[in-house]
Amino acid sequence: MRIAILGAHLVGKTTLAEKLHESFPEYEFYPEPYFELQEMGFAFSEMPTGDDYKIQLEHSLKQIVRSNRNAIFDRCPIDLLAYALAVDNTLNFSSVFTKIQNAIKEIDVFVWVPIEEPDRISCSDSNLPELRYEVNDLLGELIDDFDIEVIKVKGNLSERLNQIQNKIEELKR
Predict the structure, then answer these.
(1) Rounded to whole angstroms, how far apart are CA atoms 71 and 117?
(2) What does pTM read for this prediction?
């Protein structure tokens, strides 16, 4: 099954995705598009732009297309759409909207790691806390707009992992 982890930055999403991969070592792991693109030599703006996120979104779509049936994605197109909209709400996504819809149909399980109250991870000003909260809110809206079912996890790492594993076991029955 294909599993996508959604969430703003500094919510523990990557740590959770990596731990989930440890639980399912036979699954392919797809890191955030940002890191894959950086490794390929792409230079992003110092302050993220809508175009930076559109490029990552396109890469995320490619990750899904090239993935095997068993895969874990640390981010998916919905995250990157939320970031792009948060930094530039004038961007037109009509050209990729259908691609996003088609790609997310290939995802079997969406795991949303929202910002918790109280916040589990502090976010310094250099880590763009306003953007983090805006993306978190937009993710909630996009989840509704795309009408996807998510596992909304909370708690510490092991509690989050247990919530995902329990849901996956339910789905396998």
Answers:
(1) 30
(2) 0.92
